[in-house]
Amino acid sequence: MNDPKILxxxxxxxxxxxxxxxxxxxxxxxASIDPVAPAVDAAxxxxxGEAVKPATPEGESxxxxxxxxxxxxxxxxVIRTFLFQPFNIPSASMEGTLLIGxxxxxxxxxxxxxxxxxxxxxxxxxxxxxxxxxxxxxxVVFKYPRDTSTDFIKRVIGLPGDHIQMINDRLYINDKVVxxxxxxxxxxSVDGISYHVPQYKETLPNGKSYLTLDRFSDGPAxxxxxxxxxxxxxxxxxxxxxxxDDSRGSVGYVPAENLVGKAELRFFSTDGSAHIxxxxxxxxxxxxxxxxxxxx
Length: 296
Hints:
Blueprint: H1 58-82, E1 84-88, E2 102-107, E3 139-144, E4 147-158, E5 163-167, E6 170-173, E7 176-177, E8 180-190, E9 193-203, E10 209-213, E11 227-228, E12 233-237, E13 254-255, E14 259-269, H2 282-285, E15 293-294
Antiparallel strand pairs: 1-2, 2-14, 3-4, 3-14, 4-12, 5-6, 5-11, 6-7, 8-9, 9-10, 12-13, 14-15
């Protein structure tokens, strides 16, 4: 039996599997030996059926990256302008329903679009297009009539033509008292001390119910004159009745054009000890029971 033969680097096998014999190689000339030159000069042939991808110039790679970023920003802008926009709650005027530290999505198409549907109020038209009237009891984000760079969030109480009045803590709409029933107290903590606040379930003429807080029996806005809501305007109130600057005060009547959208979904909430980007604090700061809950 012949011993298996290990082919030398300069031997080539025949079809029968045996080498043709040693292949004499020409002696290397001094010019053919270059320690700096690459070991293989020949192009590597692709295997059969394997596609060859052309090298992308570095400049084109940056262009593609920029295009991707621009497309992503445009998509985000379209979603923010026409579909949903995120907001966070910085004040207690809607406390009971919305808490400081809540993050929510506002539905932009609920009432159509105005110039304020666009970033910085730069919509190319006046009035509203594809507009529809809010439903009494909706929680709405709108532009503050005295400073349209500021967003407010309140509940729609009065529609155009309505007569609104507060008498001895009670809400009247068109000369009829809005029914309410006492429910479990709202408990809040201030500097580690717990306080109980009277809480009521109020029901509007269309059947919409929600919770309100009544901190004082005779607060500065618990007795008012009659407000007659003008055409094309709305009367807004906060659910934290004694701690809300709303249509009873400096907000006044809100033009339909100032409506931004309807608050629909609370997607995140913290107790104030962590911002939304401070994810390492979330385990202790997140109000888990409020995540992904609808807004009444």
